[in-house]
Amino acid sequence: MPRVSLVTIAREWTRIGCIGFGGPPAHIILLRRLCVERRRWIESNDFDDGIAATNLLPGPASTQLAILCAWRLRGIVGALIGGICFIVPGLVLILALSVVFLDRTAPAWVLGTAAGAGAAIPAVALKAAWTLVPASRRGIGARRAERARWLVYVAVGGVTAAVAGSYLVLALVACGSMEILARNRGTPNPSGPARAMSPAVVGHFGVIGGLGAVAWVAFKVGALSYGGGFVIVPLMQHDVVSTYHWMSSTQFLSAVALGQLTPGPVVQTVAAVGYAARGLGGGLLAALIVFSPSFLFVLVGAPHFDRVRANTSVQSFLRGAGPAVIGAIAGAAIPLGRGLTHLWQIPILAGALLLLLVGRRSVVTCLLLAGAVGLVVALAGVPV
After folding, report:
1. Are residues 38 and 144 in the same domain?
2. Which of 45, 175, 357, 381 is 20–30 Å from 84 (CA)?
C-alpha cells in the first residue's frame, strides 16, 4: 500500500466533507472513487469489507468508513486527521444555518423557509425506512419463523418510535437480543464481540440539565444508535421537545431538515440541537461527543473487524436490531407529523411523499422545493 501524506489526507477528506450532499450513499461513492478507483490506495475487496464492518457498529457508518479508510493509509494519526476533516465542513455549515433558522426572532421569510422544509421531513423518514427494506429482507432467511420475527421487530421499532421515542435504544437492544436467543438455542453465553454489540441498558435521566443533558443526548445518538442516519430522529425527538424543551416541534423539524441539507453525516443534526440548547458551545460539545465513539470504535476495533464480522452472535443481533431500526424510522413519521402546526404544511407533506416515493427524487431536491414553497407562503403574508 502506498504511503499517503497527511496533507493529502487532510485535503481529500475535507473535499469530500464539503461536497458530500446526499447522506451515506453519496459518501461511500465519493470515498470509493477516491481510494479505490482514482488513487488506488485501497483494494476494492478491502473497501467492501470496510463497508460491511462499519455497518456492524452503532453510530454514523459513513463517518466510520471515512475514518477507517484514513486509518488504513496512515494509522491513528491519519484516522484522526481524516475523520476531523470529513466532519468539520458540515459542522461549520449546520451551526451557521442554526444561527439563522433556529432564531425565534428570525424574519418571516426565514421562518417560512424552515417550516416549508420541515413539513417534508415525515415523508423523508418514510423514504429512508423504505430504502432499507430490501436489503434487510434479503438477510432474514427463508423460513416462516424468521420472516415472522422480522415483522415483529419492525412493529416493535415502529410502535416504540411513535409513542415512546426516549426508550428506542432499549427496544433495539431487546430485538437484537431476542434474535440471538432465537438463533442460538442451547448455546451457552454469547461471545465477547456479541456482548460488545449489546450495550448496557441505560435509563432515561430526565433530571440531568444544562450541558450534562446535551452531552447525554449526544452520547445516546453517537454510541447507542444502530442503523445510523435517520434513526437518530426518534432517538432525539422526545428528549429535545418534550423532556428538555430545547426546541418546539416546528424547530425540531427544521433542525432535521438542516441535517439533511448540509454535506457530511446526517448526525450533524445533533449539533443543531446542542446550539438550540446552549448556543455555539452546546453545538460544539454535542458534535464532540456524538462523533467520539466513532473514532474510538474504529481505532480500537479495526484490527479485530474480521473476527467481529464472522461472529454469529453479532450477525444475529443485527438481524434483530436492523428491522427494528426500519420500523423506528418509519414510526418516527407519526410524531414528526404531529409537529406540523400550519394547514399549509399539509399539502407540502403530500407533495413530498409523491416526489420521494413515486417520483423518486432526491431528498435534497425535495427539501429545497419544500423550503421554496414555504418562502413563497411567508412572502404572501400567510402566518408561519
Report:
1. no
2. 45
Say whether pLDDT at 193 is over 70: no
Residues 283 and 346 placed together within one structural domain of the fold: yes
Spell out the residues 6+ positions from residue 326 whose beta carbon is closer than 8 angstroms to its own. 129, 132, 133, 136, 154, 157, 227
What's residue 194's pLDDT? 43
Is position 369 within any domain? yes
Instruction: Determine, yes or no, domain membership for 384.
Output: no
**pLDDT at residue 192 greater than cutoff 80:** no
Please tell me whether residues 164 and 268 are part of one structural domain: yes
pLDDT in tens, 230-251: 788 888 888 899 889 999 998 9
Listed residues 55, 90, 125: the one ending a domain:
90
Per-residue model confidence (pLDDT) at position 209: 63
Query: 116 pLDDT exceeds 90?
Result: yes
Q: What's residue 311's pLDDT? A: 83
Task: Tell whether 1 is covered by a domain.
Answer: no
Report the alpha-carbon distance of residue 132 to residue 315 in Å, rounded: 17
Cβ-contact 199, 223 below 8 angstroms: yes
Query: Which of 90, 106, 140 lies at the terminal end of a domain, its last residue?
Result: 90
Amino acid at 169: V
DSSP alpha helices (H): ranges in the chain? 6-19, 24-32, 44-54, 61-101, 108-119, 121-138, 144-163, 168-183, 192-197, 210-224, 232-237, 249-261, 269-301, 305-310, 312-331, 333-338, 345-353, 363-379
Domain count, the chain: 2
All three cell numbers of 185, joined, read: 438455542
- 108 and 244 part of one domain: yes
Domain hosting residue 275, numbered range:
91-379
Question: How sure is the predictor about 265, in pLDDT bands with cuts at 50, 70 and 90?
Answer: confident
Q: Which residues contact 237 (CB under 8 A, 6 or more apart)?
A: 165, 252, 332, 335, 336
Q: Are residues 346 and 298 in the same domain?
A: yes
Check if the beta carbon of residue 324 is closer than 8 Å to that of residue 156.
Answer: yes
pTM: 0.85
The distance of Cα 266 from the centroid of its chain, to the nearest Å, equals 5
